Amino acid sequence: MKADGSLGSHTVWQTIADHNSATYYFANTRTPGFVWLPLQEMIAEHKFKKHTSWKLEMIAPDPSLEDGVYNPCYSGDISALLKKTYDPFQLI
Fold first, then answer.
1. Are 6 and 22 in contact, with CB atoms under 8 Å apart?
2. Are 18 and 60 in contact (CB under 8 A)?
3. What is the DSSP letter of 77?
4. Is the pTM value of this prediction over 0.70?
5. Which three-class secondary structure string do you get for 14-66?
6. Which among 25, 28, 6 is positioned nearest to 17, based on CA atoms?
7. How far is CA 38 from CA 23, 26, 69, in A?
8. DSSP state of 6
9. From CA 62, how far away is CA 51, in angstroms rounded?
10. Which residue of 9, 20, 41, 91 sits 20 to 30 Å from the alpha carbon of 50, by its own alpha carbon?
11. Which residues of the chain have pLDDT under 50?
12. Is the dihedral of CA 39, 70, 88, 7 positive or negative?
């Protein structure tokens, strides 16, 4: 809920998928630049295996900052920054 009581929200993330090059582009509107995942390369390097989920922290709480959110400024290929996580669909 916004400060004025409305339920509206703003766009924080922009995404683009390039199907020809199998690349996923992502931008956090609070930080400059784009990041991308070269999916075809990651598949070839066997980084994607069956039943493996990955994550990248794009924002983190930080009470010492004015708006309370820390936004790491990533740029370029972020495949090396991914960390394994639980499968979000495992609970279904």
1. no
2. no
3. E
4. no
5. EEEEECCCCEEEEEECCCCCCEEEEHHHHHHCCCCCCCCEEECCCCEECCCCC
6. 25
7. 5, 12, 28
8. -
9. 32
10. 20
11. 1
12. negative
